[in-house]
User: Fold these one by one.
Assistant:
Number 1:
Amino acid sequence: MPAPQAVDLLISARWVVPIRPANTVLEHYSLAITGNRITALLPTAEALDRFAPRQHIELANHALLPGLINMHGHAAMTLFRGLADDLPLMTWLQEHIWPAEARWVNDEFSEDGVTLAIAEMILGGTTFFSDMYFFPDATARVASKYQMRTQICFPVLDFPTNWARDASDYIHKGIKLHDDYRDSQYVFTAFGPHAPYTVSDGPMKEVVTLAAQLDIPVQIHLHETAFEVTEAEKATGKRPIRRLYELGLLTERTQCVHMTQVSKDDLALLQETGAHVVHCPESNLKLASGFCPVDQLQKGGVNVCIGTDGAASNNDLDLLGEVRTAALLAKAVSGNAAALNAFEALEMATINGAVALGLADCLGSLEPGKWADVIAIDLSGVETQPVYHPASQIVYATPAQRVTHSWIGGKLQLDNRRLVNIDIHAVREKAAQWAARIHRNEAQAD
Ligand SMILES: [Zn+2]
């Protein structure tokens, strides 16, 4: 018999939901990891013969999954969580969120808000998050510091904000950010033209050209509400997605966030271009924005992934909870209880995100050669007894607090619910300090 092969880490678990192959649950399997990559996934009995691991972790009641991919959010907005709730969208934006952003958002705010968001996301099983917010350099810096993976969609807008003066300033700063993180395995950059109604044709065209040159994704809020679509139709005679298509913005690198309004023609444009949809069900519910027809999109061959959106409109960054909402909502919206089954719901939060990012070779499933971004979920809680179908239990019955372990690129991030790299007490204290400042200011303004 050949000598056992040295590996850095062997994780043996009761169940593994590898996502690829699809619709699969493996029992008593082990994941071998060397450096930052998966070496093998095989029955535990075989793994113990074949490998000599430097470290062996046994998880007797747990399921291993690929790390979750949160495809849309505004991480620093965690510091505005619960600041203004239960308001109509435009009141919420114009009277609360935009003034608060103008008053408070700077580099320091972003650093503290993003740290809070990363702590919450790791505790909930997310190992990759996409972000679109001002001060993307702060987001990139913090993600890099904690070795959390992120897609930074640097914003592009027609009007000035605390971060940039005009469209060309946004683009210039964004390209600099892209250059700074060109070789990073943690920080990936993308264009983030905010929405059709905040970016005019000139900057949109520039984004089209540069995104093609750099071969990086474009993420945009699109068809979030019926109001957005009817206003655009009144002003231009076109639905926003048609305008983007004509500008050349819709490609297989494009991630369309929300899409609660999908006509036959809209669906045809998504199908023709291979653009992806990022579904944010809880934000859409909370802001009464509408319902994304996930079942219809999936049956039409459109890749649909999932995001939480910012904590100010959710109000958490719990992607497992989001997956559950998506699975339930897809059934209600389509009138079909078979829509978006448990495996498909988990794919939205893993491999579909990886595909939209253009990183499916590295992320989204537990397959040899991919990055070792792995989470463990404890299924011994009373709420998941008995376990007939682990994938169903994870989607329909498991709270985020049952995520016990997380590795990003083979490095331990969450160790039996303890954050390895982030000082949670300091994070709490900073959040409380910001809340005190913001609250005092709001009270004075009243
Ligand atoms: Zn958003």
Number 2:
Amino acid sequence: MEKAIPHAVLNSLRMNPAIPQLLELQRLDLRIAGLRAELDSFPKRIKDADAMLAGAKAGVAAAKEKHSHAQTERKKFELDVNQWRERARKYRDQSASVKTNEAYKALQHEIAHAESEATAAEDRQLEQMMAVEETEREIKSAEAKLKEAEGSLAAERSQIQSQGAAKKTELDLDLAQREKIAASIPEEIVEKYSRVAKRHHGVALAEAANEQCRGCGMRILPHTFQEIRDSHNEEIIQCETCNRILYAAEPAPIPEQKEGAASSAA
Ligand SMILES: [Zn+2]
């Protein structure tokens, strides 16, 4: 009967009693760091959304500017067309009353010139009409982007407003819990943990498996590995390479248990 050791008891026996607490401390510290990073990111998220909104506003202003420029150009070429057409008409009127062949030819030449200028101005006017249409589309798309930016800024604001309080509460609870756990671990062990955690982005503990440190992948000497897995070990054992605090996920096999399993199978 004494061979049937409950798993929970085995668990508590197989490592320094501080190890489960350190694992919990590490879990909390990583959460706390995550929450702090998230809370710290809030002002930047607002700033980014603000910048996006400013960019979208500038986009609308630029599109409107382009639109009014194209309209001005279109009107200018429209005037040109009218002026050249008017001139051609005047020359045509004059040509009815000229006396010499020379003068008539000269007028015909002027008429042709004025007509060709009118046609050229018409082409440019058409180009500008297309530009006006194009810039109208640009304004529409810039306004859609502006609406989107306004929406995402509002969403960020409301999300941050509603989440901020909840995250802060979560953080406070985690900090209180952390303090409680840290107080239950011998001070020198907490200090050791903190030193190692600082060097390894908050991950001070590493599993020891197959004579290997899972933190850095380096070998662990067989007798050290044995010690880590020894259910009576009360030492804090650190990896010689990365300094992380090692713990065994699996205890060393207990010979009596094997016998028991064999006899019950038989
Ligand atoms: Zn290591």
